[in-house]
Amino acid sequence: MSLLDSLKLAATMVVMGVVSVAVINPAFHFGTFIAGITLGGYFFLLALENVR
Questions:
Q1: Which residue, of 14, 25, 41, 48, is most buried by count of CB atoms within 10 Å of its CB?
Q2: Where are the transmembrane segments (predicted)?
Q3: Tens digits of per-residue pLDDT, 11-24?
Q4: CA–CA separation, 40 and 13 (whole Å)
């Protein structure tokens, strides 16, 4: 597994984890939800930059 694949997997796991916790617990703090989406998006964009 290359570094790019690891970053893509990490980004996907961060987003999936945050979304699943938000779905399971409706009282989940919205700021944490936004932070997880932002972090996942950042990792994904970082992975895309390494491809080019």
A1: 14
A2: 30-48
A3: 778 877 877 777 77
A4: 8
